[in-house]
Specification:
The protein has twelve helices and five strands. It has about 400 residues and is mostly helical. Strands 4-3-2-1-5 form a five-stranded antiparallel beta sheet, with helices on both faces. α3 runs antiparallel to α5. The two termini are about 30 Å apart.
């Protein structure tokens, strides 16, 4: 989770470095450049036993965090489906109301037509109907004309009754849909409350991980120090046996540079960002280094601070919930953050905290994935939109355009 101050960020990075050392014993040979027989470079049994015990304790806590992350991801997906259901039901309510309004207009017209005929007949003293009956040339024709008049009146009544029946059915349908929507709104509120509870539990477990004792950290450092010392001794012996080859390898190795995912050097010119603030954010994206693996929100915070826009803390999930309001591509602008609240692509961190990046124009989203990367918007959505979905908006509600 992203910190609220530089000091907290520094402490957390140190803790994560220690955690990586704890889980990285198997890869120490590669990290330290050990020879093929890497098992010769080992820490003492006492240090190893103590560290294994600490690792078992940490594994247990990490398993709890993973379990909570999976539960949260499932709940986030259900909540997304509930929001879709609410939107669909509202659409049906709107369609039903349109039909009700149409039937009301039709009913009003029918009643007006009937009223106009009755009024016209009344004003003429009923002569139209009377003339029709008196014009009958025989009793059979009189009966037929009387039946015709009755049939016209019945047709009017039936038409009005049919419209009233349809309107009543539509009213009942709308009432039922509104009840469904109310139930879905309650479900959404329950899911939101559950998600908040899950976040609280996540924080509790995260606090346990953050609270690893100095003794455990010292054991990690001691283990690494012992492995490094053994590796250096073995490497020295190897160098003595093959000085020329080792010197070439050392020269080749020392010429490289490992930034651990530092600043990103673009291969193509930056896109035109529009306003000065938008361009400042884009420039900061290319110049702000990575604060480390799983620190996507911290990088976004640093970019906006370096661009002079302001400081905004919180993790990717916080930024998504607070500021990412749209999935309409026509609304996406340079300098907007692009985020999700939960995805499965990167394990527990992604499930719990989601991911956030910055749109720099030209269909490209930059983000911290350990190193600063550039992805097309489509690729970003395909990878990070597998859970809660991807949305975008202005960080802090500050429109840069």
């Amino acid at each position: 989770m992203s910190p609220n101050s530089d000091s907290i960020l520094s402490q957390e990075l140190s803790r994560r470095t220690a955690l990586k050392a704890l889980f990285g014993a198997a890869s120490a040979a590669v990290l330290f450049g050990l020879p093929t027989r890497a098992h010769a470079a080992e820490a003492s049994k006492e240090t190893t036993d103590k560290l294994n015990a600490a690792q078992a304790q940490l594994d247990e806590v990490q398993a709890q965090l993973d379990s909570i992350a999976n539960e949260y991801a499932a709940l986030a997906n259900k909540n997304a489906q509930t929001l879709n259901d609410i939107e669909n039901v509202q659409g049906k309510i709107d369609d039903t109301q349109a039909q009700i309004d149409e039937k009301k207009a039709e009913l009003k017209k029918k009643r007006n037509d009937l009223s106009d005929r009755v009024a016209a007949s009344y004003k003429s003293g009923g002569t139209n109907i009377l003339s029709l009956l008196l014009a009958s040339g025989s009793f059979e024709e009189l009966v037929a004309n009387a039946h015709y008049v009755e049939k016209i009146n019945k047709s009017d009544r039936d038409a009005i009754e049919d419209i009233q029946t349809i309107q009543a059915e539509l009213d009942a349908q709308k009432t039922e849909l509104e009840a469904q929507k109310a139930d879905l709104e309650k479900l959404k509120d329950q899911q939101t409350a559950q998600m908040q509870d899950m976040q609280a539990k996540q924080q509790e477990v995260q606090t346990v991980l953050n609270g690893l004792s100095d003794d455990v950290k010292e054991l990690m450092a001691q283990r690494d120090s012992e492995i490094l010392a053994a590796a250096q001794a073995e490497e020295a012996a190897r160098k003595a046996a093959a000085a020329a080859a080792a010197a070439n390898k050392n020269n080749s190795y020392s010429g490289g540079s490992s930034s651990g995912g530092g600043s990103y050097a673009p291969g193509t010119p930056q896109q035109n960002a529009g306003s000065g603030k938008q361009q400042a954010v884009v420039n900061a994206c290319y110049s702000t280094p990575s604060p480390g693996q799983n620190w996507c929100a911290a990088w976004v915070t640093n970019v906006f601070r370096n661009a002079g826009v302001g400081y905004f803390g919180g993790n990717a999930c916080d930024m998504f919930n607070a500021w990412c309001y749209s999935s309409d591509r026509s609304a996406l602008q340079v300098g907007m953050i692009v985020a999700d609240s939960s995805h499965s692509g990167t394990g527990a961190p992604g499930l719990i905290y989601g991911h956030v990046g910055i749109y720099v124009g030209g269909g490209i989203v930059m983000s911290n994935e350990g190193a600063i990367t550039s992805k097309s918007l489509d690729a970003f959505i395909r990878f990070y939109g597998t859970g809660s979905g991807v949305r975008w908006g202005w960080l802090g509600g500050i429109a840069l355009s």
